[in-house]
Amino acid sequence: MKNESSTGLLTYLVSSYNSQTLVILEGQVDIQFIIDAFNKISFQNYKIILIHAVGE
Description:
Elements (H helix, E strand, L loop, with lengths): L3 H13 L14 H10 L16
């Protein structure tokens, strides 16, 4: 895991908002990092949506 505090934040968010829809927007992220973090806390109810924007 790249950053242990990120796992702590994910654990907090998942436990605090478990019965609600939670959306996290991130500017740049390693998709595998998200998958690994959710697997580490046994969280499976998520979708990853990648939006690629190119500025002109």
